Amino acid sequence: MSAEITTISVANQGQPRKPLGQIFVERGLLTEVSVQRLIAHARQKSIRLGELLEVIGLITPDELAEALATQYRCRKIADFAKFSYPANLLRLISLEIAVKNTIFPLKMDGDRLAVAVADPTIDGALQEIAAQNNLKIILYVATRSEINRAIARHYLGQVMGEPNLKTILLVEDDLLVREMVAKTLSRKGYTVETAVDGMDAFSKIFTLKPKLVITDKVMPKLGGYEFLFAIRNIPEFRFMPVILMTAAATPDEEKEALEKGFFDFVLKPVKEIGLLTRVQRAFQSSESLYGKIA
């Protein structure tokens, strides 16, 4: 028996969903010509139209959430991180599932679980949550930033801190590699904080507020690409440089890493000169955006 996933509004439920681009056109945010060009570009990049529009700044996160709420006939919710949520509610969705899918449990009402999602199309995760707990899922749409703030506060007990000027967050599951890279960077005056995988890094990034992240590609729980996607959805970290460490990379893999948003990459075994050169470039990139680091 398949799990039930429903929306709040019952108006016009029998009608097909409007395309997202059409909603933006009707609201005067885009023209029909620009939508067609953007759809073609999104297909070429293998990403969703909404994601592309938000990344390039043509729409705001709130405008995207409002359009998705209209498209899926559900309500938009905001500013919900400030409320209290019982532990038994949070246990219905694990931290790993919450981070990977940008989803947060809002309320239980009998056999109905209300959840905030940034992407209403994550059917697989929603079906799994519903089936495991014998629940019906009620969708609300929120911005990724709102959901990540709620995850940080209620799952991790953290709030956004102030940026640490020369702090690097090093994410590596291999102890020997982690210690070697950390020592290399520390000798050059950088403050290095470490995490053993992407999930551990995600739990620390809100309070550390590093200026640079160096992450391994393949790790348990949350890999380098998944971690990058998770933090790129948080405005505070959207332009923070992230360097990928990998044991091998073909030209196509290098191209993919840069296209996905990594600032640079470092091959293993890590060579000191190459590592420090890339780190220096990354900090210079941050300085051009935010001002010189003391």
Notable features of this structure?
alpha/beta, GMP Synthetase, Chain A, domain 3, 2 domains, 5-stranded parallel sheet, 46% helix, 16% strand, globular, disordered C terminus
Shape summary: globular
Euclidean distance between termini CA atoms? 60 Å
Low-confidence stretches: 1-5, 7-13, 289-294
Q: Indicate the proportion of strand residues.
A: 15-25%
Largest sheet: 5 strands, mixed
The helix fraction, in percent, is 40-55%
Name given to the CATH architecture of the largest domain? 2-Layer Sandwich
Total strands:
10
Instruction: Tell me the number of structural domains.
Output: 2
Mean pLDDT figure: 86
> How is the CATH topology of the largest domain named?
GMP Synthetase, Chain A, domain 3
Walk me through what this model shows.
The chain is of the alpha/beta class and 294 residues long. It has 2 domains: 5-154, Type II secretion system, protein E, N-terminal domain (GMP Synthetase, Chain A, domain 3, 2-Layer Sandwich); 167-290, Response regulator (Rossmann fold). The protein contains 13 helices and 10 strands. It has helices spanning 20-26, 32-45, 49-55, 61-71, 87-90, 95-101, 123-133, 144-154, 175-187, 198-208, 224-232, 251-260, 272-290, and strands at 5-6, 75-76, 103-109, 112-117, 136-141, 167-171, 191-195, 212-216, 242-246, 264-267. The strands form 2 sheets. Strands 1, 2, 3, 4 and 5 form a 5-stranded mixed sheet that branches. Strands 7-6-8-9-10 form a 5-stranded parallel sheet, with helices on both faces. α1 packs antiparallel against α2 and α10 (198-208) packs parallel to α11 (224-232). It is globular, with a radius of gyration of 21 Å. It starts with a strand and ends with a helix. The model is unreliable at 1-5, 7-13 and 289-294 (pLDDT under 50).
